[in-house]
Input
Amino acid sequence: MSELALHTDPDCLFCKIVAGKIPSRMVYQDDELYAFHDIHPWAPVHFLLIPKQHIASMAQLTDAHAAMMGRMMVLVPKLALLEGCNPYPAGGFRMLSNTGAEGGQEVHHLHIHVMGGPRPWLRG
Ligand code: AMP
Ligand code: ZN
Output
């Protein structure tokens, strides 16, 4: 996907991070995905994986997003290991995507939390 074709929201925190207007500690990027460390980590490893295009939440997904979401799922275990999560089954990771107010979503740009590392964790 070309950068020009990306739908972005100028008021969105994570769109600003993708655009480099707000600093972040990058974990990974490609044409359509970006990953960066959560600013308030719950666990020894805690990063967020997001689409570069603005999608408010999981609730806005359509069939057109299926391939991209599949790529995100396949990327999660690879990035988790690279970021220091211990291998399955003794290690592993937790992934979650808060969706909507009742789902606990605070930033309305679709994101997957990936957490791991030795317990105890601050939360989760
Ligand atoms: P959620 O409640 O699922 O919407 O989570 C939003 C997450 O974004 C929280 O875990 C925040 O700590 C994280 N966050 C907010 N601002 C930033 C930022 N500037 N850089 C990195 N992570 C952030
Ligand atoms: Zn956005």
Observations:
- Residues 66-82 form the longest helix (17 residues).
